[in-house]
Specification:
The chain is mainly alpha-helical. The chain has 5 helices and 2 strands; from the N terminus they run ααββααα.
């Protein structure tokens, strides 16, 4: 699969994929006889994971560490699991904070609606 298809499937831009490749976040991408990147299904799954990790706020250095572990093979499974577990814990904390903010906003909006009804 060409880079444009990988970008479309993963939700990342072509520039981001190239940037991630430069940073060493991607496993080696096979190249065809025309020297064009040829992304496998596994490569695209990895891009989707990277996209999700970035979207959920994982720092690039942590992503790089995770990618290095992945490239070392199955002997790093427990370490990779620990990285993802830590990230999941961070997400739960962020989710709780966002839920508190959403509740406060809902309260304020309800209060403003009540005040607007009284004023009219």
């Amino acid at each position: 699969m060409r880079i444009s298809e990988a970008a479309s499937t993963s939700g990342l831009s072509i520039d981001t994929i190239r940037y991630y490749e430069t940073l060493g976040l991607l496993p080696k991408i096979r190249r065809g006889s025309d020297r064009q990147r040829d992304f496998s299904g596994e490569n695209v799954e990895w891009l989707v994971l990277l996209s999700s990790l970035r979207e959920t706020g994982m720092p690039m250095e942590r992503m790089r560490y995770f990618a290095q572990l992945y490239q070392q093979g199955n002997e790093t499974l427990s370490e990779r699991r620990a990285v993802l577990l830590d990230h999941a814990t961070q997400l739960e904390k962020r989710r709780a904070a966002l839920d508190r903010c959403a509740e406060l906003l809902a309260y304020k909006l309800k209060r403003y609606d009540e005040l607007a009804k009284r004023a009219s």
